[in-house]
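Subgroup meeting minutes
Present: P.N., E.W., G.H.
Scribe: E.W.

1. P.N. recapped why we're keeping a running log of single-chain structure predictions: easier to compare across weeks, and new members can see raw inputs and outputs side by side.
2. G.H. added today's entry (85 aa).
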Amino acid sequence: MFRDWPAPRDAEEALADEPWFHVGPRDVFPERFAPFMGLPAAELAAVREHFGHLFQPAWWRALQERFAAGEHPDTPPYARENRLA
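Output recorded in log:
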């Protein structure tokens, strides 16, 4: 399930070492993708600029709804010249 990253309600939650909210085994937080991409800052900024929707849970939920409705959106691969090295 694509979820929004919860905002902490107080300083204690903001500074907690572990999540203070429930995380299920199938939960995904697109807003947290960036730290796991391993990209230098400039490349990450370019990804955010051109593909910022990938970091928005609502975009992923809408895509799931389209698949559930029987749609199959075209998702062609990037041209070689547009891929990250």
